Structure formats: C-alpha cells, structure tokens
C-alpha cells in the first residue's frame, strides 16, 4: 500500500498561526459550544451533505450524517457537517446534468477552503454521487463515500414495482388506454414508498455500485435499503474509517487508479448499469488525470458477461440484490476479470475485501458460467451518424431491433417531439426510426434525460411497445427499449445528427457496433453548411459559463478547466 502517513494535520494551518484569525477560529468554535478538547489533537472530519427537501432521494441524509458523526467521535475525530448543492432529478429544470459540474465545484471549494483533514461524502440521487466524487478527487484529501441507499420495493395490486422503470411502462399503458386515469392515480401512491433513490438499476443505483467498485466506499454500501438499520451501521463504520484514512494519508488519487476504473467498468457491464455511468466515470477519471476512451468501455463489454437480473434489464429490484449479497457478491462472481490488488478505502485490496463472500440467490446474481448475456450491458456505436460515438444498452433493448434499417422520423427538438408525437396525422410506421436533435450539452442545454422518446400514441394503440430511437440526449438509467443516446458530436455542435431529414435511411447494427446515416457524405456536408448557427441559451451567469467550457459526452461533459492539471495536493 502506497500512502503518506500523517506528520501533521492539515487543519492545524487554520489554528496554529499568530494572526488574529487563528484566535478567532477558536472563538468561533466556542460559540458553537465546542471547547478546545473537542478538536485539539484530533483530525477534523467534514461531513459533506447533499441533503435537501427538494431532493426526495436524499431527504434522509441528515439521519445518515448523525450516524457518521458517531463513528468519527468513536475513532477520535472531530466531525463537522456542512451542506453542498443538492441535485434532485424530479424537481430541477431543465436537468440536473446542467448542474453536476457546479455541484462538484461546490464540493471541491468547500473542502479546500476549510480546515478539514478528511471528508465523508453523503449522496444518493443520480448526479449527487458523481459530483461528490469529482469534487473530492480534485480536492484530494482523504475521502470516503456513503450513499443513502435504495427505496423499498413498490407494490401495486400484488405486483412489485420499481421506480421509475414501471412508471414509464405504465405511462405507455395509460397512453395506449389500457389502464384508466383512476389506475394511474392509485399507482402514484404505491411506487415510491420510502426515502432513498430509485430501487431499480438506474443511474443512482449504478453510481453507488461504481463508488463501491472503485474502492471509494466500504464493502456493501451500494445496495443496503435506505430504511434498513444496517445503512446507519455502515455510515457509523465509515465515520470511524475516515479517521483511519487521515492517519494513513490515504487519498483519492491513490485509490482512483486505472485498475480501479477498469474494475468499475467491468462492474458496470456485469450489472447492466445506466448509460449515464459512462459519462460520469470519464469525468471522475479526468479529475485525477486519467483518460477513459469509449473504445475501452466497449472492449471490456465484449469480455464481461451480464449477470445481474435487475430491472430495467431484468426482473428483480435493489432490495433483492442486497439480500442476494450485493456488490461484494457480484464482484466475487466476476473476480477472475478484476484487478484484485486495487487499493480501497478499507486500507486493504479489493480482493481482500471480497474474500469469502458468497452469493445467496442465483436467480438474482448469476455466475460467469451461466450469465444472462455473454456480453456486458452497454455497447459503444460508431459510424457516419456518430463519428465520436453513441451508447446503447442492449440488455434493455428488443433483440429483434439490434440490427435494423428504417426510415427516419425527425423531431427538431424536445418541444417539437412533445407537440407532434401523439398527433394522429403523424406519418410513422413501426419500423421507422425516431430521431430527436438538440438534446445534447449545448443544444438542450445540459443534456437532459430526453433520450427515452415516447412511442407515438397511435402505434401504442396498435400494440407496438418498442422502436429504434436516436438522440444526442441522455436516457434515465431506469428506462428501457432500443434507445441510442449520446450521439457525438451533438447536433448543436455541428454533428451529423443535425443533417438527418425525415425519410432518410438509418442503419443500426449493434453486433458490429455501427450507427450509420445512409446519405452521401457530400450531401451531409452540404446540409450542415446550410444550417444557421444556433443561438445561445444564456447570456450571463452559470449557464453562460457552462456553454463556454462544456466538453462533449465522449469526454465526460466536464468543464475543460476542471480536468486535472499538475498543481500538487492541497494537503
């Protein structure tokens, strides 16, 4: 293990100073009721809390923070909780992805500006977890992640439900007039019935699993239900462990190695995780100076079987995953594919962490010998429609559509799609390809989860439940279907998606990783040249900054100025 044992706490630079402010800082602690014995000779541990009543997934994190504090006190540390921006998928418009980088900056600056020796990161909802990891990676003081855990299973009329995979499924049935408005209203009270994030393998669950596979959480963190007492026990243990990390000098830059990221990518494919994880992992890696090219994701997918039977790609829910053994059990199943000597926040290797772990339910977690699919959950496509790549989740798609040629039906943007998708006069057939542009980082703006294009109502009423859909937007990790997202370069940046016209032929070939617009290159060039320059969405503030510095999806949608540079550690 390569660490730098502590010689002096970083926080002492705030107090052991002859200037007046050193004296005033001690006075300020006294104002909060803390005498000097509370922090003298102890590491100061920040509890970075993304709690918010506007983010229902994270609304219980104050209770989790109290458990962390107990652990910090037990280990001889001095815990101080502080808030950071909270990103809630349900309430924020136009999308939380617009603000992920802003939250990461809040995390980084809150850590570096304050007298902290280590930090516990509390997250849960989709973008809070990657934003926390990005900010902590940039600050690079000892850190450990604790997520809030998944909700309990939903249940409606005896059927187990997962938010929001089943809300999307039943919305289609409502639009097809196969359930009533009364059914829909009743279901609303049954699908989200506890604190915590979505209980399917959506983005929140996926990123919790990524944190664990990267080695940034204690083993078992990802799947413990939010209301299970073991969530509080793990939080308390994490509070104790962060003190040990400070004493050992074990920082994120030591844990977040290329081996750790390859472990996370293989885990992503094995769990059939969210397409969003690709963007987030690339961004986190960029904060420690590592490149994760899209071909790496695809190469590891080819050699990593999909073995976790969870919605939206399977049958079960996160609660079942936990009872089956959680991420430690899954990592044990794919251990021959992993870098088992990768260091983790336990101070031990990944292999040591999972030694002796068993799988308790083979219906939920399959083995390498009996996978759900011999290849991983995600695939990277290239071709004339996505020169820099696009993403599809084959495990959640219709097998018969993974090789498909169809006529494009184009929507200029999300508003155009919503206006026309249920128009009975819309000229569309089941074998057509729905295309929507202006959904990327610049075009939307912020790259919202608009990629799960709804099917035309008249086709739903005919019994059609899937079509090929393509956009430069993202897709919720809870969504399903033959949906191609992250088409790069995006249309607003002059990507080929901007040139597609209704009636053009598009060919999707997932086995050969191709996505092509069957139009002559010269014609595509002519169409793009004739298009007007897009007008900016913002002329001031954070939105303006976002547009000036955002990178494309294949680079993680981070800001160019936040990627790692050789400035040394803040320790």
Task: Write structural notes for this entry.
- The two termini are 19 Å apart.
- Mean pLDDT is 96; it is low at 566-571.
- The protein is α/β, with parallel strands linked by helices.
- The protein has 3 domains: 43-152 and 194-354, Response regulator (Rossmann fold, 3-Layer(aba) Sandwich), CATH 3.40.50; 154-188, no CATH class; 381-535, 3-Layer(bba) Sandwich (Glucose Oxidase, domain 1).
- Helices cover 34% and strands 12% of the residues.
- α3 crosses α9 and α4 (100-112) runs parallel beside α5 (128-139).
CATH class of the largest domain: Alpha Beta
Task: State mean pLDDT (0 to 100 scale).
Answer: 96
Instruction: State the domain count.
Output: 3
Going by helix content, strand content and strand pairing, the class is alpha/beta
CATH fold naming of the largest domain: Rossmann fold
The strands making up the biggest β-sheet line up spatially as 7-8-12-11-10-9-13-14
CATH architecture of the largest domain: 3-Layer(aba) Sandwich
What is the radius of gyration computed over CA atoms, rounded to a whole number of angstroms? 24 Å
Task: Name the overall outline.
Answer: globular
Structure annotation, total helices: 20
Please report which band the strand proportion falls in: under 5%, 5-15%, 15-25%, 25-35%, 35-45% or over 45%.
5-15%
Low-confidence stretches: 566-571
Q: For the terminal residues, how far apart are their CA atoms?
A: 19 Å
């Amino acid at each position: 293990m390569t660490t730098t044992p502590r010689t002096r706490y970083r926080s002492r630079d705030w107090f052991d100073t002859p200037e007046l402010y050193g004296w005033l800082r001690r006075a300020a602690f006294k104002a909060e009721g803390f005498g000097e014995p509370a922090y003298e000779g102890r590491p100061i541990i920040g509890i970075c809390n993304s709690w918010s009543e506007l983010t229902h997934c994270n609304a219980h994190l104050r209770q989790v923070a109290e458990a962390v504090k107990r652990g910090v006190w037990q280990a001889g540390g001095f815990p101080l909780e502080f808030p950071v921006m909270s990103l809630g998928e349900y309430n924020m418009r136009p999308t939380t992805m617009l603000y992920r980088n802003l939250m990461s900056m809040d995390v980084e600056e809150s850590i570096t500006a304050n007298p902290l020796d280590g930090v516990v990161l509390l997250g849960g909802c989709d973008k809070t977890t990657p934003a926390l990891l990005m900010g902590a990676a940039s600050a690079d003081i000892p850190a450990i992640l604790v997520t809030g855990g998944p909700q309990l299973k939903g249940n409606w009329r005896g059927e187990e439900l997962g938010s929001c995979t089943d809300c999307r499924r039943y919305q289609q049935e409502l639009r097809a007039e196969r359930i009533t408005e009364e059914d829909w209203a009743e279901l609303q009270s049954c699908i989200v019935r506890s604190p915590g994030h979505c209980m399917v393998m959506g983005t929140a669950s996926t990123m919790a699993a990524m944190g664990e596979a990267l080695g940034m959480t204690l083993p078992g963190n990802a799947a413990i239900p939010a209301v299970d007492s073991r969530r509080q026990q793990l939080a308390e243990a994490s509070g104790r462990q962060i003190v040990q990390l400070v004493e050992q000098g074990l920082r994120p830059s030591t844990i977040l190695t290329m081996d750790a990221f390859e472990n996370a990518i293989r885990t992503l494919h094995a769990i059939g995780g969210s397409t969003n994880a690709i963007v987030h992992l690339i961004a986190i890696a960029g904060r420690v100076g590592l490149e994760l090219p899209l071909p790496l994701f695809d190469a590891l997918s080819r050699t990593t079987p999909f073995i976790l039977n969870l919605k939206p790609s399977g049958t079960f829910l996160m609660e079942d995953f936990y009872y089956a053994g959680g991420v430690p059990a899954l990592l044990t199943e794919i251990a021959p594919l992993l870098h088992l000597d990768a260091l983790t926040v336990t101070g031990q290797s990944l292999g040591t962490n999972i030694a002796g772990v068993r799988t308790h339910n083979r219906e939920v977690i399959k083995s390498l010998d009996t996978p759900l699919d011999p290849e991983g959950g995600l695939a990277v496509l290239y071709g004339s429609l996505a020169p820099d790549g696009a993403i599809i989740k084959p495990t959640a798609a219709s097998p018969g559509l993974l090789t498909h040629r169809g006529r494009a039906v184009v929507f200029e943007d999300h508003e155009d799609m919503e206006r026309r998708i249920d128009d009975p006069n819309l000229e569309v057939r089941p074998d057509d390809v729905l295309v929507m542009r202006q959904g990327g980082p610049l075009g939307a703006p912020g790259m919202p989860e608009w990629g799960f294009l709804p099917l035309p109502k008249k086709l739903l009423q005919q019994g059609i439940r899937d079509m090929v859909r393509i956009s430069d937007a993202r897709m919720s990790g809870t969504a399903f279907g033959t949906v191609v997202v992250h088409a790069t370069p995006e249309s607003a940046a002059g990507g080929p998606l901007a040139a597609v016209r209704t009636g053009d032929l598009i060919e999707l070939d997932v086995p050969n990783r191709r996505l092509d617009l069957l139009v002559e290159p010269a014609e595509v060039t002519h169409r793009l040249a004739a298009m007007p320059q897009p007008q900016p969405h913002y002329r001031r503030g954070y939105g303006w900054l976002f547009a000036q510095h955002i990178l494309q999806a294949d680079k993680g949608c981070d800001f160019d100025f936040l990627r790692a540079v050789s400035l040394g550690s803040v320790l």
